[in-house]
Structures are given as structure tokens and as C-alpha cells.
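Researcher: Excuse me, C-alpha cells okay?
***
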Amino acid sequence: MPTVRAEFVGCMEDVLDLDAEPSDPPRPTINFDETNNQLIAQTRPPLPGPPGPPPRSDYEYPRHGTRNLLGVVQPQAGWRHPAVTERRTQQDFAHPMKWLVDEPCPAAAVIGVVMDPWNPHQPAALSEAFAPKETRRMLKRLEFHYTPKPGRWLNMAAIELSVLRRPCLDRRIPDEDPLKREVKAYEDSRNAAHATIDWRFTTSEARVKLHRLYPSIPD
């Protein structure tokens, strides 16, 4: 148990310290996360209700599978890039990492990427998708930082995906095309507003509020 707590604290403070660093274009901090969304159709058209509440849908519905939602977020700069993929594989992880290196951060020396320690989120995933030379080029500029396993709340990309769900995905979406349209509209709107995430939890606060998680070391 002490080893587990020490590992949690180490990962947590690493992420919190990274988030607390001032904005530095040569060394940006990016948050990455993934979740899934069910594709659900209607058995019959919804019935309109009184003004205010949403239309009433039949309790029966056909499922059309799921799609993976991934989010790349730079909280301090106020931009995000959510996307839809069919699956959650190593290659589905590798391609957003290449996009990150080549598109929004081409001049960055090192890109700190905060993410959860899921199996596909490993440097080896890039080797599954790209040639060795290309993989090495990207890994020289990517620095992975993992949240503790029960600490997904430390990942600001998870917050962003939660915000995406509330206005855009709170209804039945039957297939991939309307899902992609909703995600793109959300991205354009939030980026145009330069919406940021006001993250206030610090390492100092963690040591006070979560003191029970810290291993007891005798004097």
C-alpha cells in the first residue's frame, strides 16, 4: 500500500507541477484523453413537448455501435482539437501525436503531453504506425506525463470532453457523420472564443487536502 500511494503522489505532483508552469511556446503542455460515445437511433420520431423540456423519445432504441472520441487540448492557449475515430488502438493514438508535432506545435522543442496510462498510450505505439526514422523524430520532441491510475480528474482533456458532451452529445446521435459535425461545430465555437480551463489545484494544496494519500515517513 505505501508503494501504491507513493506512485500516486509522484504521478500527481508531476502533472500538477507541469500544469503550473507558465506558458512557454518552445515547451508547450498538451493534455490528451479518449472516451467513447454510443451511436443510438430513434425507433420513431420524438414527440414535441411543452416549451423548455426536450422532446420525448421512445424508451426503445437501436444501437449502432460506438465511436471513440479523442481530445487534444492546450488549456493555457485556449485551443482544443476533438476528433472521432472508429476504434481506440495504438495507431489511433499515434496519428494524433504526429498531428501534434507537425501542425499546432511545429516549432516546439519539447511537447509535454499529459494523459492517462492506458495501454495504447505508450511510445511503442508510434512504432506500430510509422517507420523507425519518423518515430524517432517524433519521440525526440514528445515528453509523456501520466496521471495516476485513479486520478483521471487531473487530466484537463477529460474536463474538455465532459464539456463537449453536455451541449453537443446529450441526445441520440445515430451514426458517425452527425457525430463528426457536432464535434467540429463545438471545436470551432470554443476555439473562436479562446476558451481556457481555469485550473487552480496546485501541488501545495494537494499536500494539504490529500495528506492521507502521502506515505508516512518517520522523522
The chain has one domain: 2-38+64-210.
